[in-house]
Amino acid sequence: MPETTYTTVLGTLLWRAPDGEYGLVRPNDREGLDLLVHRSDMVTDPQAAMPAEGDAVLYELCTDAQGPRARSVRRRT
Description:
By secondary structure, the protein is mainly beta. The protein is built from no helices and 5 strands.
């Protein structure tokens, strides 16, 4: 079984579904595809709101047997 790897990446939240369940993240370096993220992969600080469209975000790029995905997406402060 291939090992999962994680890399911290800077990006932008391009889009969020009206219900907030899904979003689309684009890495700033544009090396790679835009990543669909689920609300459960977005981290919120109790003092801050969920990342909104156009916000700069920091996330972990997870690469595993299923391919690349974003997790721990949070607004960059």
